Amino acid sequence: MTMSRDFVNRRLHSLLGVIPLGVFLIQHLTVNHFATRSEEAFNAAAHFMESLPYRYVLELVVIFLPLIFHGIYGVYISFQAKNNVSRYGYYRNFMFLLQRITGIITLIFVTWHVWETRVQAMLGAEVNYKMMESIFENPLMIAFYLVGVLSAVFHFSNGLWSFFVSWGITVTPRSQQICTYVTMAIFVALSIVSVRTILAFI
Amino acid sequence: MSEKKMVKFIITRKDNADSSSYKEEFEVPYRPNINVISALMEIQRNPVNAKGEKTTPVAWEMNCLEEVCGACSMVINGKPRQSCTALVDKLEQPIRLEPMATFPVVRDLQVDRSRMFGALKKVKAWIPIDGTYDLGPGPRMPETKRQWAYELSKCMTCGVCLEACPNVNDKSEFIGPAPLSQVRLFNAHPTGEMNKGERLNSLMGDGGLASCGNSQNCVQSCPKGIPLTTSIAALNRDTAFQSFKNFFGSDND
């Protein structure tokens, strides 16, 4: 029997959001968090990541290919929905809408962020503490990064909840409820990590 | 009080499938324990709108009048539900009646729910037992399973869950929660289980299970309290296993 492209794409979209993208997000936030210790600690951690073996393969397979698929297919999914939160103001419906909004914000933010850091690195700029410090000299950029990073963190945490449902791991309402608490705790924890990091550059 | 108490209705009307919709107000004399259907019947008897103009009677569908057939579903004060169990005493006035616009509107409050019946055929929501000879009694069903399966069998294809779902719309092929849950029902049946794989594979088609975005409006809206999102999550698990079987191969089914 045939599994339709719809089915395979949706499942792949759900999986890629957690593995590798979610894993990468946590790793990225963790490495950046070194900025709260000192400029040297951040630069050393960033340098370590830069000097990983077969870096380009890792970047392509772990980050860029999944990101492009997840991003483009995600936009398609978002615009398929006819949101109706005003009529059905239930918690999950609200999260459904937020998931789509934060997804779009994250895509815009990440595209900008990749351009500003990774692409600039390719063009010869050095990605280090100083670079972020100079970006954050503009208060608008601080706001943009706060919104972008918090959107990404929310999108990951709430997406993790959907992942558990979409793969049939949390089936009962009770398990889904507890999963909501756990994923929202993850959202809060990762938000603290990312906001502290951003503030460290200012 | 000499003046009679009136109930005010604002009804979204449409003269035929191709014309545009408009709103018309009606005032219906109040009677104790009146429901939306008896008010609509009153309008049918005396089709005069609130301005006192003679108009066409409002069209709607109804059948069982006890919330088991699903025919009289409409959007009442913003929420899709059955008009037979919508008691005027419990509704905020003016009472706004609209058709469930997720479906093609035939006329006024009457919609065409054919897509739901089409979806039931698509997912093979039945148990094939017809044959050329007597197959004998089927296997027994465990009582605990029968109990939850019975809840799923309460589905009356009323369309409320489709109306509430943000992913059921003209931009998507999604068949909606109701037919999905029916797959779980028929797969739970000991005889129906023999065709489990076929039904799961049909769910993995376009517009099937994967189009669910987990807004969970369906389970909040279902008038029969069917655990639709539990069904969806259970089927997500079943199709995950089924897709592995399909791809890697298996002796079962």
What portion of the residues of chain A fall into strands of 2 or more residues?
Answer: under 5%
Distance between the termini of chain B: 73 Å
Low-confidence stretches of chain B: none
Q: Estimate nothing, just give the exact number of structural domains of chain A.
A: 1
What pattern of helices and strands is seen along the backbone of chain B?
EEHEEEEEHHHHHHH
Overall geometry of chain B:
elongated
Question: What's the short story on this structure?
Answer:
The complex is a heterodimer of chains A (202) and B (253). Chain A has helices spanning 5-18, 21-32, 39-50, 55-80, 91-122, 129-135, 139-166, 173-200.
Structural overview:
The complex is a heterodimer of chains A (202) and B (253). Helix content of chain A is 79%, strand content 0%. By secondary structure, chain A is mainly α. In chain A, helix 1 packs across helix 4. Chain B contains eight helices and seven strands. Chain B has helices spanning 36-45, 114-122, 143-152, 160-164, 177-188, 196-203, 217-221, 228-248, and strands at 6-13, 22-29, 73-76, 79-82, 95-98, 105-107, 110-111. The termini of chain B are far apart. The chains are: A mainly alpha (202), B alpha+beta (253). Chain A binds chain B through residues 1-7, 9-11, 77, 79-84, 87-88, 90, 92-93, 96, 161-162, 165-173, 176, and chain B through 78-79, 164, 166-167, 169, 171-173, 197-198, 201, 204-217, 220-221, 227, 229-230, 232-240, 243, 246-247.
Name its key features.
heterodimer; A: 202 residues; mainly alpha; 3 helical TM bundles of succinate and fumarate reductases; globular; B: alpha+beta; five-stranded mixed sheet; 8 helices
